[in-house]
Amino acid sequence: MKPGTLNSDPRFTDTMENARTEPPLYVVRFSGDFVASFRHYSSAIARAAGEAAIRRGCNVVTERGEA
Protein backbone atom coordinates (compact mmCIF):
# COMPACT_ATOMS: atom_id res chain seq x y z
CA MET A 1 0.00 0.00 0.00
CA LYS A 2 1.26 3.47 -0.82
CA PRO A 3 1.55 5.64 2.27
CA GLY A 4 -1.52 7.81 2.60
CA THR A 5 -3.64 5.95 0.03
CA LEU A 6 -5.72 2.77 -0.08
CA ASN A 7 -3.91 0.43 -2.47
CA SER A 8 -3.35 2.49 -5.61
CA ASP A 9 -6.61 4.48 -5.41
CA PRO A 10 -5.54 8.07 -4.74
CA ARG A 11 -9.14 9.09 -3.95
CA PHE A 12 -8.79 7.43 -0.53
CA THR A 13 -6.36 9.06 1.84
CA ASP A 14 -5.41 8.42 5.43
CA THR A 15 -3.60 11.12 7.33
CA MET A 16 -2.86 11.78 10.94
CA GLU A 17 -4.66 14.95 11.99
CA ASN A 18 -4.86 16.83 15.25
CA ALA A 19 -8.56 17.58 15.49
CA ARG A 20 -8.34 19.04 18.99
CA THR A 21 -7.75 15.52 20.27
CA GLU A 22 -4.87 13.96 22.12
CA PRO A 23 -3.37 11.93 20.54
CA PRO A 24 -3.98 12.92 16.90
CA LEU A 25 -6.32 10.65 14.95
CA TYR A 26 -5.99 8.82 11.64
CA VAL A 27 -8.54 10.43 9.33
CA VAL A 28 -9.91 8.61 6.27
CA ARG A 29 -11.14 10.73 3.36
CA PHE A 30 -12.60 9.90 -0.05
CA SER A 31 -11.93 12.59 -2.66
CA GLY A 32 -11.32 15.01 0.20
CA ASP A 33 -14.63 14.23 1.95
CA PHE A 34 -14.45 13.02 5.55
CA VAL A 35 -15.31 9.33 6.01
CA ALA A 36 -14.20 8.52 9.57
CA SER A 37 -11.43 8.97 12.15
CA PHE A 38 -9.72 6.44 14.38
CA ARG A 39 -7.01 6.21 17.03
CA HIS A 40 -5.40 3.19 15.34
CA TYR A 41 -4.06 2.94 11.79
CA SER A 42 -5.39 -0.61 11.29
CA SER A 43 -8.93 0.55 12.07
CA ALA A 44 -8.62 3.41 9.57
CA ILE A 45 -7.42 1.05 6.83
CA ALA A 46 -10.22 -1.44 7.55
CA ARG A 47 -12.81 1.36 7.33
CA ALA A 48 -11.31 2.66 4.08
CA ALA A 49 -11.42 -0.85 2.59
CA GLY A 50 -15.07 -1.21 3.63
CA GLU A 51 -15.93 2.18 2.17
CA ALA A 52 -14.22 1.22 -1.11
CA ALA A 53 -16.29 -1.98 -1.25
CA ILE A 54 -19.51 -0.07 -0.62
CA ARG A 55 -18.68 2.40 -3.37
CA ARG A 56 -18.09 -0.53 -5.75
CA GLY A 57 -21.61 -1.76 -4.97
CA CYS A 58 -20.81 -4.55 -2.51
CA ASN A 59 -23.10 -5.33 0.38
CA VAL A 60 -21.06 -4.94 3.53
CA VAL A 61 -22.35 -6.38 6.80
CA THR A 62 -21.38 -4.39 9.87
CA GLU A 63 -22.13 -4.92 13.53
CA ARG A 64 -25.10 -2.57 13.04
CA GLY A 65 -26.44 -4.46 10.01
CA GLU A 66 -25.96 -3.89 6.29
CA ALA A 67 -24.31 -0.64 5.28
Summarize the structure.
The chain has one domain. A 4-stranded antiparallel sheet has the order 1-2-3-4, covered by helices on one side.
Largest β-sheet summary: 4 strands, antiparallel
Order of secondary-structure elements: EEEEHEE
Mean pLDDT: 80
**How many separate structural domains?**
1
The shape, in one word, is globular
Rg calculated over all Cα atoms: 12 Å
Termini Cα gap: 25 Å
| Strand percent estimate | 35-45%
Characterization of this structure:
This protein is of the alpha+beta class and 67 residues long. It has one domain (5-59). It has one helix and six strands; from the N terminus they run ββββαββ. The chain has one helix at 41-55, and strands at 5-6, 9-17, 25-30, 33-38, 61-62, 65-66. A hairpin with a 2-residue loop joins strand 5 (61-62) and strand 6 (65-66). It starts with a strand and ends with a strand.
Considering the chains and any ligands shown, give keywords for the structure.
67 residues; alpha+beta; four-stranded antiparallel beta sheet; two-stranded antiparallel ribbon; 6 strands
